[in-house]
UniProtKB/TrEMBL annotation, chain A:
IBH1-like N-terminal domain sequence ranges: 9-71
InterPro entries in the cross-refs: bHLH_AtIBH1-like (IPR044549), IBH1-like (IPR044660), IBH1_N (IPR059002)
Record key words, sorted: Nucleus, Transcription, Transcription regulation
Organism of derivation: Olea europaea subsp. europaea
Protein name listed in UniProt: IBH1-like N-terminal domain-containing protein
Automatic annotation (TrEMBL), chain B:
Protein name per UniProt: Transcription factor PRE6-like
Listed InterPro entries: bHLH_dom, HLH_DNA-bd_sf, PRE
One BP annotation, GO: regulation of DNA-templated transcription
Main localization of the protein described in the UniProt heading: nucleus
Record bears the keyword Transcription regulation: yes
Localization of this protein: Nucleus
Species assigned in the record: Olea europaea subsp. europaea
Pfam families reported for this sequence: bHLH_ILI
Amino acid sequence: MKARTGYSTSLKQEFLKKWIKGIRIYSNFKKDMNILERKKAIKLSADLAIASTRNASTRWSRTLTANISKNETNKIFVEQIFSDSEVIKKEAPSRLMARSNRIASKKIWRRSHITQIKARKMGPYAVKARSIAKKLVKNRTKVLKSLVPGGENMDGISLIKETLDYIVSLRVQVDVMRRLASAAENSTRLGLSSKCSVHWLQGIFTVLDHWCAMVH
Amino acid sequence: MSSRRSQMRQAGVSRITEDQIVDLVSKLQQLIPEIRNRRSDKVSASKVLQETCNYIKNLHREVDDLSDRLSQLLESIDSDSAQAAIVRSLLM
């Protein structure tokens, strides 16, 4: 997994292009969507798009794509989006779970044994303080694992690395979505006539189209 | 820490140094606006984890809110058929 810094424009453009493509394909699938379906189309396309910018090189992106594809109705849509590009790799969670559980139980035995040895050396209070701190870290790590897609099966180092990449990607996603939303909203809020507001939006989408075409 | 190292050796995994962990945690700290400006030795690992979790939850919520906003924006356009036709043609 390559490390990435935050704000490369090409990453944003890649996300935007894939996002718009996803919305288009979804619209072709379902004409006359209600507002809930529209939201789903927007969100699903955004998640697939940001995951696909990693080209299956990170666990979180593979898991995210796989989770979306699990749903039967989404599956066809996902296959359409990826038809001309990368393959959807399937994660094999069950095998990994069994193995990590075995390792975990070994660790628990060793840890309890070592704590007894330490208590003799350090004294009970120091041991207690340290075990509270460890518990805190352990609980918070658990929460983090539930937030990062595929986090449950990762060891500590992988979890942090994946979290770093995931956060960078989420920020790109939010940034691009935010810009589009506020640009569209500004045109409405300025109280422009209906013709003008369509013109603004038309402008936005035209710019986006050109942008996408340039990046392609 | 030595207990973890001997466990790692037992599992056949190469040694993961404490420096590596410290390095990754500080990278994480750099990313999170809440604790970015504090000195790394003053922020505990559990604090970094806590703020990381909060940050990710906030980002998830923002994506959801933005999806709501955008779907509403399209709706207000769709109410008029001429506008709807234009927007649809742009999206398809």
